[in-house]
Every structure is written in structure tokens, then in C-alpha cells.
Specification:
alpha/beta; Rossmann fold; 41% helix; 8-stranded mixed sheet; 8 strands; 310 residues; 13% strand
Length: 310
């Protein structure tokens, strides 16, 4: 990819296409939904807080009065909510062109999901794993269909503690955030291998936003993380509209191939125009991929259509 200043103005017309963006009530998700709506896409704002989602939709329509938006509730930490969202979407749509697995939480005190999993692993990984599996047949009916899973440079510091994935014996807020971001990377890569092996039309692509000023860091209740990311480093951060470029590029650029990881091209991948970046070797480890996939199917109860194992 030639390094150049790709921007949202280069997105081609998306009229007739359906995008589902999780976490679209603010930050990167809102910026992604806004950019797509400007280009004519129908965008499903998949949000935990529907009132916040309606405010986000109002922000978009104030700029783009003819925006085609749907605000739909989903709590990715709650697998019952994920299934209800998928069922309702299926009732109203015959296809989905792109699913952007964007939503995430960062470094809360140890908390469990309604199904008993550590909240970051449940929200950032398991909810998106389940949602992708439940929507995969709708995606297969789309035009140039893609699943874009948003990870982080932090996946390179992550380890998946398969013997204590929920942090019952040892919990670190940032350590478990890094674990969840590695799980995103492993999932996106493993999904690519399985889709390609099954000759599926759906592409799995990974993206990360670099360092972007969103509510993710400022909203964390962990004081040191909030101080470091929310205050001390904030002058270095990109605006959400710039941070969202990597996932937008991954979602719509024709030259993007399945399995690629798109991130900012500047120093340290903190900011800059989207380009291909490198996954950590552990994210591509076959044994880790199979183990995480099997664990995720067991914990979510969601089994994907038959796909060749990576």
C-alpha cells in the first residue's frame, strides 16, 4: 500500500449497502457511522445505551439530513442480548454487507458478565465472536462482505491465560484488557483462515485506531490508566474522525485482503494514514487459534457454519 493521506472523503458511494457498527454511540463507532452515512450507507448503530444512540443519530442527521440510520440495542457483555439483537436484525434485513466489531471497554475493576465471564473478555471478544457467528449467513448475502474486528497495538503485550481467563486467581485491569485485544486479533486471523478455507465470500479484516482521544481511556475507573491515557498523553491523541480511518479503510477499500491488519502508518502506529501493519506472531499461532475458537464456542454456545479449521 502506498503511504498517502487517505481520508473519509475518498469513500465511494455506499448507497444500498448495510453496515452494522457496534459501539456507535460515541468515539470511533460514531465517527465510523457518520462517515458511512455521509456516503449513503444504511448504518445500524448497535449500542448498549439506546438514548445515547439516539443522540448520536441526531448528531449525524444534523450534518446529513437524509442519513439512513437505525438505532438498535445490544449489550455485548450479555449473550442473551446479542442473540436478541441478531434475531431482530434478521427479521428486518435480508443481508448485511459489513459488520464492524468496534465496541470495547478498558481496564475496569474485575467484574463478571451475566454469563459469568470477565467483563473485558466478554464484551470485547466473546460478544463479537457470537455476533459474527450469528450474522455470518446474512453477511454471505452481502456485496463485498467483510467483518472488521478492531484490536489494538496492545495485543502485542497480551497473553491469553487459558487456565484463568476470567482472572479469578489473578486479575490485572490492563493485563486483561491486553488479553481481550489479543483475543480480537486471534479471532480475526482465525476467522480469515476458516472463511478462506471454506471459499466464503466474506473477508475477515483487522484494524486498530492508534492512539485516539475517545471516552475509552477517560472513562476507565482505574486511576493510573485514566491519568496516563486520559490526561498526560491526551495531547498526542488523534481525533475520533482520524482514528476511525483504519477501520473505515478496512471496511470499504477494494484492495484490502482478508487477514490483513490495518493501522496508522505514523511513528509507533500512534497516528497517521491507514496502512498495513503487522500482527504479533502469537496472534497467528495455530494452536492458540484453535484453543481460543473452541473456548469461545463453548462459552457462547454459538457455533459457526462449517468452516475449515485454521
Amino acid at each position: 500500500m502506498k503511504q498517502e493521506r487517505w481520508n473519509a472523503g475518498l469513500i465511494p458511494d455506499q448507497t444500498g449497502r448495510v453496515f452494522v457498527v457496534t459501539g456507535a454511540g460515541s468515539g470511533l463507532g460514531l465517527a465510523t457511522a457518520h462517515a458511512l452515512a455521509r456516503r449513503g450507507a444504511r448504518v445500524v448503530l448497535a449500542v448498549r445505551d439506546t438514548e445515547k444512540g439516539r443522540r448520536a443519530a441526531a448528531t449525524i442527521t444534523a450534518d446529513t439530513p437524509d442519513a439512513r440510520l437505525e438505532v438498535r440495542h445490544v449489550d455485548l457483555a450479555d449473550l442473551g442480548s446479542v442473540r436478541a439483537f441478531a434475531d431482530a436484525l434478521r427479521a428486518d434485513h435480508s443481508h448485511v454487507d459489513v459488520l464492524v466489531n468496534n465496541a470495547g471497554i478498558m481496564a475496569p475493576p474485575r467484574t463478571l458478565s451475566p454469563q459469568g465471564q470477565e467483563l473485558q473478555f466478554a464484551t470485547n471478544h466473546l460478544g463479537h465472536f457470537a455476533l459474527t457467528g450469528l450474522l455470518l449467513d446474512l453477511l454471505a448475502e452481502g456485496v463485498d462482505p467483510r467483518v472488521v474486528t478492531v484490536s489494538s497495538p496492545n495485543h502485542r503485550q497480551g497473553r491469553i491465560a487459558f487456565d484463568d481467563v476470567d482472572g479469578e486467581r489473578a486479575y490485572s485491569p490492563m493485563g486483561h484488557y491486553n488479553q481481550s485485544k489479543l483475543a480480537n486479533a486471534v479471532f480475526g486471523h482465525q476467522l480469515h483462515l476458516r472463511l478462506a478455507g471454506a471459499d466464503s465470500p466474506v473477508r475477515s479484516v483487522l484494524a486498530h485506531p492508534g492512539y485516539t482521544a475517545t471516552g475509552l481511556q477517560k472513562g476507565t475507573p482505574v486511576g493510573t490508566v485514566r491519568l496516563l491515557y486520559g490526561r498526560l498523553l491526551s495531547p498526542l491523541a488523534q481525533k475520533p474522525a482520524d482514528g476511525a480511518l483504519s477501520q473505515l479503510y478496512a471496511a470499504i477499500e477494494p484492495g484490502v485482503r482478508g487477514g490483513e491488519f490495518i493501522g496508522p502508518g505514523g511513528a509507533g502506529e500512534l497516528r497517521g494514514a491507514p496502512t498495513r501493519v503487522t500482527l504479533a506472531p502469537r496472534a497467528k499461532d495455530a494452536a492458540t487459534g484453535r484453543r481460543l475458537w473452541e473456548l469461545s464456542e463453548r462459552l457462547t454456545g454459538v457455533r459457526f457454519p462449517p468452516l475449515t479449521a485454521g
